[in-house]
Amino acid sequence: FISEGIPLIIHLRCILVTVYRVMVKENLRVLLLLCIFELKLSFSPATQVEDTVNLVKRIEKTGIAAIAVHGRKKEERPQHPVHCDVIKAISEAVSIPVIANGGSHDFIKEYTDIETFQKATAASSVMIARAAMWNPSIFRKEGPFPLKEVMQDYIKYAVRYDNHYTNTKYCLCQMLREQLETAQGKKLHAAQSTQEICEAFEMSEFYEETTAVFEAKKTSLETKQQDEDDQMEDPDVIKMAVRFDKREYPPQITPKMYLLEWCRKEKHPQPVYETVQRPLDRLFCSVVTVADQKYRSALWDKSKKLAEQAAAIVCLRTLGVPEGKLCEGENHLINKRKREDQECLNNRDHGKDLAEPSHKKANFAEESSDMNVPKLQR
Ligand SMILES: Cc1cc2nc3c(=O)[nH]c(=O)nc-3n(C[C@H](O)[C@H](O)[C@H](O)COP(=O)(O)O)c2cc1C
């Protein structure tokens, strides 16, 4: 539970954990279902513990696998003492595992305290939230690392993994806690970037060095990218900087359809699309071959589909053929479709043919998946 970061639960709020086994294609998989619900019940003070225990017993009977209990009453706040006796009473009354929670403030200062809390509650395990935020090395058996060291290590991870500064700041504030009023705490509070956080912890040198390495890496990748783009520079390919924008076309009408229609009319073989994907930004570029001439857009697209449409546009524009845009006015493909739909309806009325209109058959099918697109070699 701790490692998965599943939220813990307050006294009289219960997590029900049920394990189901399901067979999926001969592999036995285990699904862990968490049913979380809040029980906002008011027991009379005299029978509170008894009522709580009875409630948990009833919940146990529903078949749950475990229960987490936060030893506080509904009206109590996190800084109030945890009621180990109530958790203990529950632990002793049920046979499913009880996970004790709520001990960060009073109990858990180091690893051995986790065991103390477990013993005090007779629980089978312990869930920890705040103590782990205050010093994540709480789980170190030999004792926690000094906070200063932990914070510095944390900042290093945050810089290396480009963590958002607001999140870094929040986590560091949790660690600093009482020291937030110190000069360092105030600097942290005022920080508006990772760089400023590093300054507050006298780690500017680390920040500069690490970001310089990243910048160099970025430049080198961009240069590599340029080289790869240059490799794609084939003087025989006709290029234009165009993108396909669906909004500029009537529904279900695309440049690829127009190009296919044109090829059929001109008795050319149907267009052949070859698409590649750039590993760096995962963008796609498609080259379409029509009548032995290759065409491509100079711009890279987010999907294979878009890249193919863009290549078709380049081809159609070069040939001076309409591409089906709304602004082109009369759309012969739409008219053709309407005629086909009408024919189909007429046939249906006469009970002749229950087939779909021709454009819904393979004619205009645009099978285009991003899967199996070759990646550019580095
Ligand atoms: C940052 C943070 C987020 C939490 N989010 C939830 C939550 O989403 N749902 C919930 O039931 N409890 C939540 N809690 C409460 C804890 O799960 C836990 O019950 C409480 O902190 C008591 O445990 P502790 O003494 O180990 O901190 C959160 C606590 C913290 C510190």
Notes on the protein architecture:
Keywords: RNA-binding. Residues 347-378 are annotated as: Disordered. One of its GO terms (cellular component) is cytoplasm. The chain has 378 residues and is an alpha/beta fold. The protein folds into three domains: 13-139, TIM Barrel; 147-207, no CATH class; 237-358, Double Stranded RNA Binding Domain (2-Layer Sandwich). The protein has helices at 48-61, 84-93, 111-121, 130-134, 147-160, 165-176, 183-190, 194-200, 204-231, 255-265, 304-319, 332-349, and strands spanning 13-24, 27-38, 66-70, 98-101, 125-127, 237-240, 272-277, 284-290, 293-297. The strands form two sheets. It has a five-stranded mixed sheet, covered by helices on one side. Mean pLDDT is 80; it is low at 1-41 and 353-365. Bound molecules: flavin mononucleotide. The site of flavin mononucleotide (FMN) has 16 residues, from helix 4.
Strand order of the largest sheet: 2-1-3-4-5
Task: Compute the separation of the termini in Å.
Answer: 42 Å
Q: Can you identify the CATH class of the largest domain?
A: Alpha Beta
Bound molecules: flavin mononucleotide
Question: Which consecutive residue ranges, at least 5 long each, have pLDDT under 50?
Answer: 1-41, 353-365
Distinct helical segment count: 12
Oligomeric state of the chains present here: single chain
User: What average pLDDT do the residues reach?
Assistant: 80
Number of domains: 3
Looking at the structure, what is the overall shape?
A: elongated
> What fraction of residues sit in β-strands?
15-25%
Sketch the topology as an H/E string, one letter per element.
Answer: EEHEHEHEHHHHHHEHEEEHH
How can the largest sheet be summarized?
A: 5 strands, mixed
Query: How would you name the CATH homologous superfamily of the largest domain?
Result: Aldolase class I
Looking at the overall shape, the CATH architecture of the largest domain is: Alpha-Beta Barrel
Helical fraction: 40-55%
Rg over alpha carbons: 33 Å
Number of strands: 9
